Structure formats: structure tokens, C-alpha cells
Amino acid sequence: MDELGSGIVINILSSALWVLGGVLLVKLYSVYITRRETLFNRFAQMPQGVKLVHLTYGLIGTEANARTAEEGDVSAICSALSMLLDRFGTKKVSVLSPTVALSEFGAVDNLISVSGPVWNPITRTLLDASPIPVSFKEDGGDDVLIDHVHVSPKIYKTRRESNIPRECYALVYRGSWETSADGKKRHFVVAAGISPLGTYGAVTWLRKGSTQRLKKNPFIKGLKKDEHAMVILRVRDSSPAGFQAYSAGPTSPGFLIIDTLARYRASDIKLELGG
Q1: 82-117: string of b/e by CB count within 10 Å (b at 16+)?
Q2: Helix (H, G, I), strand (E, B) or coil at 68
Q3: Stated pTM of the model
Q4: Nearest residue to 214 via CA among 3, 93, 57, 47
Q5: Reduced to 3 states, what is the DSSP secondary structure of residue 239?
Q6: Helix 196-209 and helix 71-88, axial crossing angle in degrees, nearest 10
Q7: How distant, in Å, are the alpha carbons of 112, 244, 264, 268 from that of 131?
Q8: Which single residue of 74, 85, 140, 213 has CA 20 to 30 Å from 95?
Q9: What is the percentage of the chain residues whose pLDDT exceeds 70?
Q10: Phi, psi for 247 (deg, rounded to 5)
Q11: CB neighbours of 196 closer than 8 A, spacing ≥ 6?
Q12: Contact 120, 60 (CB under 8 A)
């Protein structure tokens, strides 16, 4: 083989090795990302490689007859933001006020909405359109969570001791919607309770899932893309001063006990008991 032929062969082999090396790097990166995937990533449909994640929240009204804001919702929002920054980094997390989130609703993907439907219009809009029949209602001045999946609805109410919430209920709901503009699916998660204790518990449940691998929860691992699903949680607090004394820090208090009461898929509404 002459010198020219040898050079061509060497160039071909060199190019092939570069291509093979690039394929291996992509494969290794894919395996790395997959292994980093957590229960939160799968449930929220927000993989590690997502471009941008949005967090929105509820605003308390300023009318004279409005209920005052409790520290719990602030703690829940701070905890959710801290989790997202830990998982995705500062460049991939955006915080939207409810007004902005509503104005851009059809275009926002990867949205997490914290707090219940009374003060959070995004939560209200998403739950009103949910195919899973679970809703928030007001009963005697308190919000209650009503599960209509069964023939006899279940009503969950906050239990208080000396006017301090000690047992509350919440939901965490994931799904997707499609806009008529481009036909693309937008994904969302709602974390909301019937009191600030419940909302904080819902965010804490998500936060715990952000450090757990998929094999730990067959229900979440088995969810299909774009599928609507919901968990109903019971949140119990045993702190000496009550939940109103919790800080807004990201660390989950040791006084909380969170139990999963039900898991639902929209395609197959079925109650599954257990944690």
C-alpha cells in the first residue's frame, strides 16, 4: 500500500475512533443522568436535563375580611424553592407570581404550584380541570379536602388542639395539559393542603422524593408520560409550639409524620392503601 493509501486508512480509522468515543460519551452521560433520576424527577416529569423549572405560589388577599397569612405557606414556598435550586441549579429555576403565571399559563412548562386553591389561582385552575375527582371545599370557615373517587365521598378535616393544627391533609397532583397553539404538552405539579401544615407536608413529601431512587416506589416508577396522578397525604405535627413556630428553612422538621392515604391514576382510579 502506497503512502497516500496508508494516510487515507489512518484518517478513516481515526474518524471512526472519534465517532465511537463520542457515542460512548453520550451513552455514559445518559446512564449517569438516568441513575441520578429520583422519585421527584419521575413524578414531576422534570428530568435532570430540563431547561427551565417554574415555581408559583398563592397570594393572600388584602381585604379587611381576608384570612391572615400563616407562616406555613411561606415555609412551604421556601422549602420548594430550596429543593429546586438543589436539584437543578440557579440558572434553571424561575419564580413566577400568580399574576405572571396566569398571564403565561398556556406557555409555561415544568410548573410547580404551591398552596391551595383559595389563594393560588394556578392551583385552582389545575384542580378544576383535573380528571381525578378530589377537591377543596369550605366548611364552617375551614377548608376541607373531599375525595369523590368512591361511592361514599371521604371528607378530610384539620384536627386542632388549643387552636393549633395537629393533623392535616394535603394532595400532590401531577399531570399535563395541551395548548391549541402548538399542541405541545406542558407538565405541572400541585402541592396543596387544607392548612399551611398540610401544604408544608406536601412539599416535604416532594422534597423527600428528590433524594430517593425510583425502585423505592413502584407506583411512581410505573407512571406513564403525561399521565395524571395524585397522592393524598395525612400530615401530623407533634412540635411543642405547634406548626406556627416552624422556621422557613429547608430542613424537614423531625416533628412531622407524613402518611400516604391514597394513590390515584386518572386512567385507572383505584385506591391503594399504605405508605
Answers
A1: bbbeebbeeebbeebebeebeeebeebbbbbbbbbb
A2: coil
A3: 0.81
A4: 47
A5: coil
A6: 10
A7: 18, 34, 11, 11
A8: 213
A9: 75
A10: -85, 170
A11: 70, 71, 72, 73, 75, 76, 165, 243
A12: no
CA dihedral (166, 112, 122, 263) positive or negative: negative
Give tens-digit pLDDT for 77-96: 988 999 999 999 999 999 99
- Indicate if the pLDDT at residue 110 is higher than 90: yes
Facing residues of 257 across strands?
Answer: 236
- Compute the distance between CA of residue 19 and CA of residue 9 in angstroms, rounded to an integer: 15
Helix (H) / strand (E) containing 55: strand 53-56
Q: From the CB of residue 139, how many other CB atoms can be counted at a distance below 10 Å?
A: 11
DSSP per-residue letters across 95-150: EE-HHHHHHTGGG--SEEEES-TTT-HHHHHHHHT-SS-EEEEEETTEEEEEE-SS
Q: What angle do CA 117, 120, 124 make, to 5 degrees?
A: 40
Give the neighbor-by-neighbor strand order of the sheet with 142-147: 134-139, 142-147, 154-156
- φ, ψ at 40 (rounded to 5°): -65, -45
**173 CB neighbour count, 10 Å cutoff:** 24
Render the burial of 45-69: b for 16+ CB within 10 Å, e for the rest.
Answer: bbeeebeebbbbbbeeeeeeeeeee
Indicate the DSSP class of residue 152.
S
